[in-house]
Design a protein that fits this description.
The structure is a single chain. By secondary structure, this protein is mainly alpha-helical. The chain contains 28 helices and six strands. Strands 1-2 form a two-stranded antiparallel sheet. The chain has a two-stranded antiparallel ribbon with strand order 3-4. Strands 5-6 form a two-stranded antiparallel ribbon. Helix 14 runs antiparallel to helix 15. It is extended, with a radius of gyration of 35 Å.
Length: 559
C-alpha cells in the first residue's frame, strides 16, 4: 500500500512512510513527527496548493458535462462549481487525483459529487491505515461530510474508479496490490456504512433539543458540567482556574460545538485542530478528556430522557475529544514541554537531538494537519521568557558540518516577519538578545582587530522586497539602549548615508533656494535704498505718535 501510494501520488516513499509511522506509533512518534516534519508548512502546503490549481486547470472533475442537477443536495448528482467543464484537454493525468477524476468521468460517475469528499480524505486514510483509531476518526468525519448529499451513495463505485486509477499509475501492479487495496476499501466502506444515514437524524434531534432548552436548563448545564468533571477528575481543577463567567462560556461553547460538528464538520475539524494546539501550550494531559466527556454526557442525561438526543450528543462529544486528543499527542513535542516548564536548559536538551537542518524548524513550527503553532511565539505569549531567550540564542547560533553552514536567521524572519514588533510589545528585554545574534565576531585577531559581520538584510528589506518596518518599530519602542545598539546604528547610518540623505536634500532644495534669494534680496535692498527707508521710517514714526495722541485724547473725552 505504502509503495504503490507513493508512486500514484508522486510523493517520496520516505515521506509517506514517515507520515504513516508518525500517526501509528502513538505519543512518542507524534513528538518526533510533529517536530521533525515541520517543513510541511513551507513545502507540503505549497505543494498541495499547486496541485489543487493544477487539477482545476486540467478540466477533469465531477459534475462536468453530462451531469444533471445543481450540486450538493440534489440526489447525489450535480454540475459542481463550474471548475471542470472542459473535457477537450489532452494532457495525460499523472497523479492519483487527476487520474481518478478522469476515470470517473469516463466510467460515467462524473455526476457523483460525494466522491469529491472521499477523494479529499483519501490521502489521510491511506497514510493512517496502520492506525485504527485515526482511521476510524477520519471515516467518521467523512461520513458527516457525505451526509450533506441527498440520494443513494454507492460506495462500491468509488472502489471501481480507485482500482482503475491505481492500475494506470502503478507500473508493477499485481495481485498483491489488488488484494491490499480491496482490503483497505472494504474496511473503510464498513466504517462509513456504519454511520451513513445517522448524522442527519442525530443532527435534527440534537437541534430540536437545544432549541427547546430554556435558561434554567442552560444554567444547570453550565454549573453541573464542571462540578461533575471535578468530582470525576480532581486534578482537572488545576487546569480550570478561570472565573465562573469563563467556565460558563466554555460550557455554552461546548454545546454549540456538538451541533456544529454535524452541520459544518470540515470547519469544525480546522477549529478543533487550532484549539488542540492551544491545549498543547497549556500542557493539558490527554487523560482528562475522557472524564470530561463523561461529565458532559451525564449532564445531558439529567436534562432529557430522549435516547436519540443522548446518543447524538455522546457521539459528537466523543468525536470532538478524539480529535483534540490526537492533536495534543501529535503537538506535544519535547520543545513544547520545555516551554511549558519555562526552562532554557530543558529546551537546549530537547533541540540537542534534532538534525542540524531541522533544528530551527523544531523551535519555529509545529504543524498538525493544516493548523500550526510557533513554539517561539507561544513562549512569548505565555511569558516563558527563559525558554524564549534560549530559542532565540539557539536560532542565531552559527553551526556547520562538512557540507553546509546552518544559521536560523532566514528561517526566523521567513516564519515571523514581525518578530521584532512582537518582541517590542511582549518581551523588550529579549530584543537586545536578538540584535546581538545578528552580529558575528571572529575569534581571530589581525593587527589588533577582529572581523565583524553584520546581518542586516531582514532589518532593511521585507519578504516582498519593500522597505521593512523594523526600524520604525524599534524607534516606537523608545528604548535608548536598543536604539544605540551597534547593528541598529549601522542600519540607520546606512539608510541615511546611502538613501535618505540625497532624498532629504532634493526635498529641501527649493526651500534652500528661496531662503538664499530672500537673504540676498534683503541685503541688497538695505544698502541701495537706505535714505528712502530713513525718511519713510521717520514719517511712519510721526504718524504713529500722532495716532497714539489722538487715541489718548478720545479716551479722556469719554471719561
Amino acid at each position: 500500500l505504502t509503495a504503490s501510494w507513493a508512486v500514484a501520488t508522486k510523493k517520496g516513499l520516505d515521506a509517506v512512510e514517515a507520515a504513516d509511522e508518525g500517526e501509528g506509533e502513538g505519543e512518542g512518534a507524534g513528538e518526533h513527527a510533529a517536530s521533525g516534519d515541520a517543513e510541511a508548512e513551507f513545502g507540503a502546503a505549497k505543494t498541495k496548493q499547486a496541485s489543487a490549481k493544477s487539477s482545476k486547470k486540467k478540466g477533469w472533475g465531477f459534475g462536468a458535462k453530462g451531469g444533471s442537477g445543481s450540486g450538493r443536495g440534489e440526489s447525489g448528482s450535480g454540475s459542481g462549481n463550474g471548475d471542470g467543464t472542459d473535457f477537450q484537454n489532452t494532457t495525460v493525468p499523472t497523479t492519483y487525483d487527476e487520474m481518478f477524476m478522469f476515470n470517473a468521468a469516463v466510467m460515467g460517475f462524473g455526476s457523483r459529487m460525494w466522491m469529491n469528499e472521499v477523494l479529499a480524505s483519501f490521502d489521510t486514510i491511506v497514510s493512517n491505515v496502520s492506525n485504527s483509531y485515526r482511521l476510524q476518526e477520519e471515516c467518521d468525519i467523512l461520513a458527516l461530510r457525505m451526509a450533506k448529499y441527498k440520494g443513494a451513495i454507492a460506495l462500491h463505485e468509488y472502489k471501481a474508479v480507485m482500482l482503475a486509477s491505481l492500475r494506470s499509475l502503478v507500473k508493477d501492479w499485481g495481485s498483491q496490490h489488488e488484494v491490499s487495496w480491496s482490503w483497505l476499501w472494504e474496511n473503510v466502506e464498513r466504517m462509513i456504512k456504519a454511520q451513513l444515514g445517522k448524522p442527519a437524524l442525530q443532527e435534527r434531534a440534537l437541534a430540536c433539543f437545544l432549541s427547546s432548552l430554556d435558561e434554567n436548563g442552560k444554567g444547570i448545564a453550565r454549573r453541573e458540567v464542571h462540578a461533575k468533571f471535578f468530582a470525576l477528575a480532581p486534578t482537572g481543577q488545576d487546569f480550570f482556574k478561570q472565573s465562573n463567567t469563563r467556565l460558563h462560556f466554555i460550557a455554552d461553547k461546548l454545546i454549540v460545538m456538538t451541533l456544529d460538528m454535524y452541520r459544518e464538520p470540515e470547519k469544525m475539524v480546522e477549529e478543533l485542530s487550532a484549539l488542540g494546539l492551544r491545549h498543547v501550550g497549556y500542557g493539558t494531559p490527554t487523560e482528562l478528556f475522557g472524564p470530561f466527556v463523561t461529565a458532559c454526557v451525564q449532564v445531558i442525561r439529567m436534562l432529557t430522557e430522549n435516547d436519540q438526543v443522548e446518543e447524538a450528543y455522546r457521539w459528537s462529544m466523543s468525536l470532538i475529544s478524539r480529535i483534540l486528543m490526537r492533536v495534543v499527542n501529535e503537538g506535544s513535542t519535547i520543545v513544547m514541554k520545555a516551554i511549558n516548564a519555562n526552562s532554557g536548559k530543558q529546551l537546549k536538551t530537547a533541540v540537542g537531538c534534532a538534525p542540524r537542518g531541522k533544528r530551527a524548524l523544531w523551535m519555529l513550527n509545529i504543524q498538525v494537519g493544516t493548523q500550526s503553532i510557533s513554539p517561539l511565539f507561544w513562549a512569548l505569549e505565555t511569558g516563558s521568557l527563559f525558554a524564549a531567550k534560549a530559542i532565540i540564542v539557539d536560532l542565531l547560533t552559527i553551526r556547520a558540518d562538512r557540507d553546509h553552514y546552518y544559521y536560523g536567521m532566514d528561517i526566523l524572519f521567513e516564519r515571523h516577519p514581525d518578530v521584532i514588533k512582537r518582541l517590542c510589545l511582549d518581551a523588550p528585554g529579549l530584543l537586545y538578545t536578538l540584535l546581538d545574534g545578528l552580529i558575528w565576531r571572529s575569534r581571530v585577531t589581525e593587527n589588533g582587530q577582529r572581523r565583524v559581520n553584520y546581518y542586516i538584510r531582514h532589518l532593511l528589506q521585507d519578504m516582498h522586497g519593500g522597505f521593512a518596518k523594523n526600524t520604525e518599530w524599534i524607534t516606537d519602542s523608545g528604548d535608548p539602549k536598543v536604539v544605540c545598539h551597534p547593528i541598529v546604528s549601522m542600519v540607520t547610518d546606512l539608510v541615511w548615508g546611502r538613501v535618505a540623505f540625497r532624498t532629504f536634500l532634493v526635498g529641501k532644495a527649493w526651500f534652500l533656494f528661496t531662503l538664499a534669494v530672500f537673504i540676498c534680496s534683503q541685503s541688497v535692498l538695505n544698502h541701495l535704498n537706505l535714505g528712502v527707508y530713513v525718511e519713510v521710517g521717520a514719517a511712519a514714526g510721526t504718524s504713529s505718535a500722532a495716532h497714539r495722541l489722538l487715541a489718548s485724547a478720545s479716551t479722556a473725552v469719554k471719561v
